[in-house]
Amino acid sequence: MADITHALSGRAQGRLGPAMLVLLLAAPALAASLTNLSMRLPPEQWWRTLVDPDLDTIAQILALYSFAPRLVVSLLAGGALGLAGALLQQVLRNPIASPTTLGLEAGATLALSAALVGAPGLIGFWREGVALGGALLSIGAVLALSRRSGFAPLVVILAGMVTGLACAALAALLALFNSHYLAGLFLWGAGSLSQQDWSAPAFLAPRLALAGGAALLLVFIGLAAPVLARISGARRISTRLITAMLTGAALLWLTDQMVLLLSGTSGEMLPTGAVTAMLGAPLLIWMIPRLRLPPHAGAGLLSHATRGARAGPLLAGFALLVILAALASVSLGPGIDGWGLAGPGDPLFALRVPRMLAAFAGGALLAVAGGILQRMTGNPMASPEVLGVSAGAACGLVVALFLFDGVGRAGQTVAATCGALLALAAILALARAARGAPERIILAGVAIGALLDSLVSLLMASGDPRAVLLFNWMTGSTYGVDAASAAVSLAGAALVLAAVPLVARWLDILPLGPTSARALGLPASASRGVLLVLAALATAMATLLVGPLSFVGLIAPPLARLAGLRRPIPELVGAALLGGLVMVLADFIGRTLAFPWQLPAGLVAAMIGAPAFLWLLSRKQATP
To answer: pLDDT by residue (tens digit) across 132-143?
Structure first.
């Protein structure tokens, strides 16, 4: 595997020196800092406030114990995150390694959330140790899973993203059942840098390695800063590490000061982490075509089944499992008097059938969308969840709900479809401009997903009462599905599956590349556009049903291929059945496990799917 030291395009290398890069970021940050400070305190009082503050003057107290510590924390945290990202990329020889893509952020979030709910004393005693422990457990699992592949970049990122999504699902589940902590968790997750004294800077200065626990979730900088350092022309390891650290510090400093400048004198309800992603994602998008990534290993890790199999018996077996799971889901369940059976005349039966059908339809739609994306891009990591398509659908829906009153089901579907379509179109356009390497597609998905998730995070942390309703929807609850919605979703899934035979030839040819596609008479651009619309529509309909956190679009197609379904039609039909099966089981478990409380099907599916997919990943690596 090529070292990432030389993974830089010739046209970008050396164009901008490391010193100039840091200067270009630090100069506007300094100007914004001086402007913000002058808005809070007259310049003639700056020196006096520093050496002999008047504790009876509110402006001096705020400047000394809020503004100044916040500025120092932004520098320390940004530098630590930039250095951490550069170290991870160098050690793993992986240009897209970062605390986010390796699951460090999600592991720390889960540990802090669990401690906040179960042992709040630990948060007050040593929150940084809790965060560090969660991050170490997460990265340990990722490295253990990818060890057999020699830490191939694609395998490491795949394991990291799945581990991160699993941790995020568990953290969301904890937040869902502890609503009195929701506001704090939302603000922490969005990355607020607000300070009340000098305790955080005093802690961070000698302990930069623990910056993630004290400086909140600003880890997008851990991906962007090292990439910027490479593009600036920093070749030597020492130069690259120093440049990444200074770039991260300047980037977070600039972002935080812009947040304060735009928010007036408070800036309290505009989390810096979300704004960092909003500003950093376009920067990363601009950088993607300018990077020459090293040759990737493991791109075909999940692309082929171990051996061929007859499709008919397999699909019949999958269908039988779906029927059995569906019957159990609508017939069995706990009640006041314990477990019991419900028949067609029972009111419980009538309530359970729509949500079971909706869960199946959502799982099938996500599985088909994931299978189409994986075949269209030739990338086993392509899925609505990983590539940010689900985030696009969620963002479209959230924007519609916040901008318009009384948005009905049809309007929600249109908004979600537009969001998913725009996100997927942007990702594929970036991948095409960068010659379609799997790592570039992942980078594009991370950037688009971070940008859209930051918009959702800002709305969720805004304090609007609709934020709690949105959180319940985003976790994938099928609680409120009625018969009409279930019928529409099932019809949508049937229409998407009916379209699969019409595009099967395209799905067979497109993985061969554009040259082969043209040689075989396939209009590559037109066919990709049709598949793009089909995948976006399926993702939008599924996201409305089961939320954006499900793993089904990622795990169902590889499971179908592992079973021996190689051709497009059997593979996608098998993936749809498996995806529907996972969601039906998830809905049943969520309804019965914590009775009378209900766990959202989307989160339960994520918790089922993550171990299954990680087991599949380790099994494929163990196969010679």
So the answer is: 888 888 888 888
